[in-house]
Design a protein that fits this description.
Radius of gyration: 18 Å
Shape: elongated
Helix content: over 70%
Distance between the termini: 14 Å
């Protein structure tokens, strides 16, 4: 059960997300917030959320892309469940175990917010969609900070400590950027910067969680 949730589920959801985004990008008809005539999907000119809209910015039907993207986001619900099992891997030390529980609660809530992005296509529930998208990353700051402490207090390999520390730095920098950066709706240049950075952080987040599953697997094997 522990291996299923903390290893298999995490790997499946993260891999599915990458595959789903690639498929959704392929079928995206076109358009962005500043150019409805754009053909297809652009890594630098479209946000990931554009893939989840019921219609593309060009006004065309976006059913196929929205199904794949929104489903991939909804599956983050299971990532949240997975992290509720992670503290049991650190139960040999009570303070560390308690910290892991707190960190997992933040990961759980943050994952629910990621899933919320899939429940709220931007072109139907714009304000709610933005609320889920922004706060999902904000919740990752305390989640990753607490788990950095957990990893430092445990016997987990230094490479996993480096992974979570790097993630903490990047997600913190991204949240700061969201607060002080120029609104992407204001001009094309701001949109390009914001869309590009968003994808980098999103895929780094997925890569981080995927990488941690290997550390969790080693904890499970060492406890046998």
């Amino acid at each position: 059960m522990i291996n299923f949730w903390t290893v298999k589920v995490i790997r499946f959801v993260t891999i599915f997300f990458v595959v789903a985004v690639i498929i959704a990008s392929y079928f995206y008809p076109g358009g962005n917030i500043h150019d409805t005539a754009q053909s297809g999907y652009s890594f630098t000119h479209n946000f990931l959320s554009d893939l989840g809209g019921l219609e593309s910015h060009s006004g065309e039907d976006n059913t196929i892309s929205s199904i794949f993207f929104n489903l991939s986001m909804l599956l983050f619900f299971f990532i949240g469940i997975s992290f509720l099992f992670v503290p049991t891997l650190f139960k040999e030390n009570k303070p560390t175990f308690i910290l892991a529980i707190i960190g997992s609660l933040f990961f759980f809530i943050g994952s629910m917010f990621f899933a919320g992005v899939g429940f709220t296509p931007y072109d139907v529930f714009f304000d709610l969609h933005v609320f889920f998208a922004l706060n999902s990353f904000r919740l990752m700051i305390p989640a990753s900070l607490i788990y950095l402490i957990v990893f430092l207090r445990s016997s987990l390999s230094i490479k996993y400590i480096a992974v979570i520390a790097s993630f903490l730095f990047l997600v913190t920098a991204y949240v700061i950027y969201l607060n002080i950066g120029e609104n992407p709706l204001s001009n094309k240049e701001a949109m390009i910067a914001s869309a590009t950075i968003q994808k980098f952080i999103a895929f780094m987040s997925v890569a981080t969680v995927f990488s941690l599953s290997f550390g969790f697997s080693k904890r499970i094997n060492n406890s046998k």
